[in-house]
Design goal:
This protein is α+β, with helices and mostly antiparallel strands. It folds into two domains: 79 residues, Arc Repressor Mutant, subunit A (Orthogonal Bundle); 172 residues, GAF domain (Beta-Lactamase), CATH 3.30.450.40. A six-stranded antiparallel β-sheet has the order 5-4-3-8-7-6, sandwiched between helices. Strands 1-2 form a two-stranded antiparallel sheet. The N and C termini lie far apart (51 Å).
């Protein structure tokens, strides 16, 4: 009897503190986490063995709280990135910034250029760290600046290396046919970026600045952040590394920070 007392007490405690609605919601989240293309409501009902009405109510609450998204056709449900955002909110960003700043400072000294670190933030991106170059001339962007994904070098690089599911979810949040069409028009640009492993192009914000951007990647090859150098060419003959040399220095930093 003594051998079964502890398990019996544990089982009684489990039953005592049951929260059926919470369990139901968690069951749906766990089920959808294994379905990258999502499931219809009927498929969820069948997989969980519950009544259609109770599943419908729970799904509607999960959609309202942005844990689950409904397809534009309204017949398929999938996880949003909210759980990912919650899990990777401030402490992981702080850890990334803490690791990145010494490397960014070293880059700025070696490249004689500024650089900034950008992370995705729902429908846009945000600058979380900045390193300035030594000397009298620099171009920088303030920490905390929100940037548009489609109109910045950092944003385009994030989109190029982003999980396609997240990109589709971002476009759905825009709910703007013009922006969705613009996103689709960048398909060739994204493919070029992925093949090269970086993006180099004229700034979409400031004339005369050439953005050099490289992603910080997960083991699956998806971007968790982008490091961008707004490259400025000096005209006074002062020696400085060229674009290819700066790119090599930048990629040294991003490869060190990537989660291999």
């Amino acid at each position: 009897m003594q051998k079964t007392a502890a398990p019996a007490r544990a089982e009684q405690a489990d039953e005592r503190y049951r929260a059926p609605a919470l369990d139901k919601g968690l069951d749906i989240l766990e089920l959808l986490s294994e379905q990258p293309r999502g499931l219809t409501r009927g498929e969820i009902v069948k997989a969980m063995g519950r009544g259609p009405s109770e599943i419908y109510r729970m799904l509607e609450r999960l959609v309202a709280r942005d844990y689950v998204s409904r397809s534009p056709e309204g017949d398929r449900y999938a996880l949003t990135m909210k759980l990912f955002v919650l899990a990777h909110r401030h402490p992981p960003v702080r850890r990334l910034v803490t690791r990145a700043l010494p490397l960014m400072d070293a880059f700025a000294r070696g490249a004689r250029q500024s650089c900034h670190l950008v992370v995705p933030d729902r429908e846009q991106a945000i600058v979380v760290a900045q390193a300035t170059c030594p000397g009298n001339w620099e171009f920088g962007i303030r920490v905390g600046t929100e940037i548009d994904l489609l109109n910045t070098g950092s944003g385009l690089t994030l989109l190029a290396f982003q999980d396609p599911h997240i990109t589709r979810e971002t476009a759905a949040r825009w709910n703007d046919p013009a922006r969705s069409a613009k996103l689709a028009a960048f398909a060739d640009t994204f493919e070029t970026c992925r093949k090269a492993g970086h993006r180099i192009g004229e700034s979409r914000q400031i004339r005369g600045v050439e953005d050099i951007s490289a992603p910080i990647l997960t083991p699956d090859g998806y971007a968790i952040a982008v490091l961008t150098c707004p490259y400025i060419q000096r005209l006074d003959g002062h020696p400085q590394p060229d674009v290819e040399e700066v790119l090599a220095l930048l990629e040294d930093v991003t490869q060190t920070l990537s989660l291999n």
